[in-house]
Design goal:
The complex is a heterodimer of chains A (about 290) and B (about 250). Chain A is mainly alpha-helical and about 290 residues long. Chain A has 11 helices and 2 strands. In chain B, a hairpin with a 2-residue loop joins strand 9 and strand 10. Chain B has a single domain, classed as P-loop containing nucleotide triphosphate hydrolases (Rossmann fold). Chain B is globular and about 50 Å long. Chain B is built from 12 helices and 10 strands. In chain B, helix 3 packs parallel to helix 7. Classes of the chains: A mainly alpha (about 290), B alpha/beta (about 250). Chains A and B meet through helix 6 and helix 7 of A and helix 2, helix 3, helix 4 and helix 7 of B.
């Protein structure tokens, strides 16, 4: 395999993991934008997606598609429960307090998952076989294609949702100005709950589509969550394209770093990028200073 | 017909007693203004009516029914919309999105799109400048246009009672005139009842039928707007006339 083939291999597989990070990052952004909370439990819903998927498919022998839909549903409901039990009672807490609550909540969810499903690593079958495809000199699995397709589909759907439906617009309104949103009759608390539902569902989907490639276990949420957080930070916590690009950039850099330097540095690459962004461009790579008139 | 009746309400911000035994009423189709210095409790009255700042005691009756224990959404649903101080439009959303969100509860009630569309056209007729700018982000509008948008957004809920908080704040006199003339049109054409809070007491009293003067959380005077304009105490304290001018007339 010559060097250019190697590079295109890294880039393509990097894009696939990046797509996963983008989905997780969008979950961070959705919750942050409607509540101002950085939900560090986001990674746990990614884990729950994968684990529920395994549970329904291998333990209950549901057909794969059904198992996956059930897994997303259960993870999303867990997200709503999490909001009801951990966040809503404390809405008057400081932002820092809420962030710490989400960290505490994530430890709890992880612990429960370990108690219920054990410490083993589980795998989901790939969605459509393991016959490798070759693309631009690189070799990809059909599962990579699923990742690309489902990510693009979800991003398009969420864009349409936020741009064109009244509920999507109401969520954006809550993000900008909760007081004014309340005054036009939007039930802000319901919208907060809804944003947790969307974010955990999206995270769960990410956890499910990556599980066939990387396996899943009770503790995959920490790292995936942090990667998603990093994607959202690169994208300036935007609800849309910024975070998606952030995830893709992160995935590619990580793959290049792992391939060209050493795979031991894979995670280090992420955190170096995170630190650089936080030091040099805390508003994210793509956000312009907003110009507005008063 | 009496539309709104506020009976002896008391509102607190923590320990601060912001409204002290305030009573007032509004008749159907009236424009009533609240005047008073900063911190007199004008905005607090509006927020108590909108259930944003709950009252601690007293009663608020709207069309005969108590509403002081309801949620802010329910208040809007019943037909009381507030245009908050400082406009508070949704800046990163387009003008049209802002207006549509004003009709949020009507979408929720599954009211037909055609009827909501008709209200939208109505707003554009009242404020043609919003029509020109309907695809623009609200944050790029001028202050006056943002005020028009905030009023339009509140009207999209088709309120029976419109609460306006300082609509003239920070605007050029010509723009203020334009906005006040639209408020007059509203009551005339749509029959909307208006409760207007204003620093600009003179303009407010010229527009209103009646007025209440507030001082440190209490209603101290209630009179017709014409009488208030002639009231010496009011002239001195809120209309910026010197003692000399008043007494030497």
């Amino acid at each position: 395999m010559d060097f250019s083939q190697q590079i295109s291999q890294y880039i393509l597989s990097g894009l696939a993991t990046g797509a996963i990070y983008a989905l997780i990052g969008l979950g961070f952004a959705i919750i942050y934008n409607s509540t101002g909370i950085i939900n560090f439990a986001q990674g746990e819903f990614v884990m729950l997606g994968g684990m529920f998927g395994v549970y329904f498919h291998t333990v209950h022998n549901f057909n794969l598609a059904v198992a996956l839909l059930l897994a997303i549903l259960f993870a999303a409901v867990s997200g709503v429960l999490f909001e009801r039990l951990a966040i809503r009672p404390l809405r008057r807490a400081t932002p820092l307090g809420l962030v710490i609550i989400t960290i505490g909540g994530s430890i709890l969810v992880r612990g429960l998952a370990m108690l219920v499903w054990g410490k083993d690593t589980h795998a989901l079958p790939t969605f459509s076989g393991d016959e490798p495809l070759s693309l631009a000199g690189a070799t990809l699995l059909p599962q990579h294609m699923w990742i690309f397709a489902l990510t693009v589909l979800l991003i398009v759907l969420s864009k349409l949702f936020f741009q064109f439906t009244i509920t999507g617009k109401a969520l954006r309104a809550c993000a900008v100005n909760q007081r004014a949103a309340g005054l036009v009759g939007i039930d802000v608390r319901r919208m907060v709950m809804f944003s947790f539902l969307l974010a955990s569902g999206m995270g769960a989907l990410a956890g499910i589509i990556i599980a066939p490639l990387t396996m899943t276990s009770y503790d995959v949420g920490i790292m995936l969550g942090l990667k998603g957080f990093c994607a959202a930070i690169i994208g300036g916590m935007s609800n849309g394209l910024g975070t998606v690009l952030g995830g893709l950039i992160l995935g590619v850099l990580e793959a290049l770093g792992a391939g060209l330097i050493s795979s031991g540095y894979k995670d280090a690459v992420t955190f170096i990028i995170l630190l650089l962004i936080l030091f040099l461009r805390p508003q994210g790579l793509f956000s312009r200073g907003e110009s507005e008139r008063v | 017909m009496e539309m709104l009746k506020v009976k002896h309400i008391n509102t607190y911000y923590g320990q601060v007693h912001a409204l002290k035994n305030v009573s007032l009423h509004l008749n159907q189709g009236e424009i009533v203004t609240l005047i008073g210095a900063n911190g007199a409790g004008k905005t607090t009255i509006l927020n108590s009516l909108s259930a944003v700042t709950p009252i601690r005691s007293g009663e608020i009756l709207f069309e005969g029914n108590p509403i002081h224990a309801l949620s802010p959404e329910k208040i809007v649903d019943l037909g009381i919309s507030q245009v908050p101080e400082g406009r508070q439009v949704f800046k990163p959303l387009t003008v049209e999105d802002n207006l549509e969100l004003g009709a949020y509860l009507r979408y929720r009630r599954r009211e037909g799109r055609a009827r909501i569309r008709a209200s939208l056209d109505e707003i554009y007729r009242l404020f043609p400048r919003l029509l020109e700018r309907r695809r623009q982000l609200a944050g790029t509008l001028s202050g006056g246009e943002q005020q028009m948008l905030a009023i339009g957004r509140a009207l999209m809920a088709r309120p029976k009672l419109l609460l306006l908080d300082e609509p003239s704040m920070g605007l050029a006199p010509l723009v203020v005139q334009e906005i006040f003339s639209v408020i007059a049109t509203l009551t005339r054409e749509l029959g909307t009842t208006v409760l207007l809070v204003e620093q600009n007491a003179k303009a407010a009293l010229k527009l209103a039928d009646r007025g209440y003067v507030l001082e440190t959380g209490k209603v101290i005077i209630e009179e017709s707007a014409g009488d208030l304009l002639e009231n010496r105490e009011v002239q001195r304290a809120y209309l910026g006339k010197e003692k000399k001018e008043i007494w030497e007339r």
